[in-house]
Amino acid sequence: MEALTVRVDLSAIRGNLAAVRALAGDRIVMACIKGNAYGHGLVPVARCLEAAGVPWLTLGSPGEALALREAGITTPILLFPTIAGFDLKRHVGAGITIGVQSAAEAAALAPQAAAPVSVFLKIDAGFGRVGAPLPVAASEAREIARLPSVTLAGLFTHLPFFSEESVAWVQERLKAFGEVAGTIQGDAGRRLVVQALASTGLASGLDAPSTNAVCPGSLLYGVQPTWTSASGQHIDVAGLRPALVEVTSIVGSLRTIAAGERFGPGGARSAARATRLGVMPLGFSNSILVRKPGQRVGIAGRSAPVLSVSLEHTVIDVTDATPIAEGATVHLLSRDGAVGPTLEDIARAQDRATVEILVALTGKAAYAYVS
Predict the structure, then answer these.
(1) Residue 37 in domain
(2) How far apart are CA 146 and CA 139, in angstroms?
(3) Confidence band (pLDDT; 50, 70, 90) for 232?
(4) 341-359 confidence digits (pLDDT tens)
(5) Is there a domain that residue 239 lies in?
(6) Do 170 and 23 fall into the same domain?
(7) In a 10 Å sphere around its CB, with 0-12 CB exposed, 13-18 middle and 19+ buried, how is residue 136 labelled?
(8) 290 found inside a domain
(9) Which candidate among 55, 201, 208, 243 keeps its CA 20 to 30 Å from the CA of 156?
(10) Is there a contact between 69 and 52 (Cβ–Cβ < 8 Å)?
(11) Model confidence pTM above 0.85
C-alpha cells in the first residue's frame, strides 16, 4: 500500500463549478488550478474542468503549464507572471498565454514564436506584489499594442482580502482598476478579457466595473471563503461540497510501551498506562502533518492523538482504538467528521489556512478519483 492516498470527488468539482457559474452570471469563468489544483491533482482536475467547458485554465507554475499541454489539455491556459526564469520558446510554442507586467516583458516573447503571441497584462491595483502599477498600466498597454508580433488579449489584477474591514478599500481599488481597464479597452478599440474577482470577491458579491471575467480558486474545490464580518459572520456559498474526500495512510508498525516507561524524543514522554503506539510511514516531508501538538487522526472509528511527527514517520496513540493490526487505515483527513478530522478541523489544530493544508498535497501520494 502507498504511504499516502488521496481520494478526490470529481462530481463535487463539477457541482462547485455550477455554483460558481451561478455567482458569475454572464462573466467568463477562468478556473484556477495552481498548486497541483489546490492539492487535488493537476491533470485529472484540468480534464474534469475542460470536459465541463471552462473557457480558461489559470496557474502560476511554468512546469505545470507545460504538463497540461503534454497531457493533451487544449483549453486556453493563462500563466501568471513569474519572477523565476523559464523557457519562453517552449511555452509560447505550446500556445500558452503569458501574463506579463510590462511592454518590455511582452517584447521579449515575440522572437520566440512564428505567429503572434497572446498576452495578458497583469496590473497591480494596490496589492503591491506583481503587475504594472495602476498609474502606468495604460501606457504599458499602449506600448504592447505597438508590438508587431504580440496581441494583448486580456487584463487582470488580484486583490485578496480576509475581513469586512477591507471591503471598502478593495471596492475602491476595483473601481480604479475598472477605470484603467476602460481606458485600455478604449485605446484598443475592442473588448478584452478583464478579470479582477477571485473566490472571496466573487462570493462577497463585490462590484468590479469594466470586468467580464472571474478567476475562482478555492470555491471550485468546495472551500468556503475565510472572510468574516465584524460580527463574526462567515460567507457561505450555497451548493459547495468539498472535493477532497479523504487523505489516508496506514499503520506500518505497532508496539506497546509499559506503564511508567519513558519514550519519545529524549524520553520526553512517560506512559501513564500501558500504551499502544502506531507508526505511520510518512511525516512532515510527504503529508499534510506538521510538527505541532494537538493534531488528531481517525482510526477504526475512533479519534487518535498524534504524538510526534518527524521527517518520514508519525507516531499516534491507538490505545483507545478498537484492536487493530499493522496495515490498518488511518484517516488524516475526511469529508466525514465522524471518520476523521475535516479540513477545517486540521486548519484549527495547525493554526493554518485551509489552502495551506491543501497545497501541501504536492503529488507525493497515490491519487484516486470518483465521480
Answers:
(1) yes
(2) 11
(3) low
(4) 999 999 999 999 999 999 9
(5) no
(6) yes
(7) middle
(8) yes
(9) 243
(10) no
(11) yes
